[in-house]
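== Folding task for one protein ==

=== Format: two labelled lines per protein ===

==== Paired sequence and structure tokens ====
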Amino acid sequence: MEVQALPVLVPGMLRRVHHFALNVRDMQASRYFYGTVLGLQELTGAEVPATLKDMVAAGKVANFVTPDGMVIDLFWEPDLSPPAADPATQFTRANHLAFDISPGQFDRAVSVLQQQQIAIAAGPVTRPTGRGIYFYDPDGFMIEIRCDPAS
């Protein structure tokens, strides 16, 4: 009896991350964090995807975009609470969201986090793959800012 291989997606079919959706408890705090602290552009007006316009208008969703075009959707879930109050206790299948930054801007990013009194979970760390710093968003989701090794 011959075993037939199941079909798979081939490398290159999935081109990039299109969007990343996060549930947030406090929309105002999260919009400040992603828009002001991290400096991401919030989509407004005609930039908002048509499928989300009503939810954005109702304050239930906010959309941010990175310079390379990845969208981060924030969905307001006022009753959201992780199983543990300590954000170091992982409570989702996702581990963290990592943003890339140039090596020359890394120290400035660390300084901004410190000035904003963002609690640092780990780092800055230096590895053969570059440098990174880990911290939490207002809902306890881990964020990383990382850079390639300086050349």
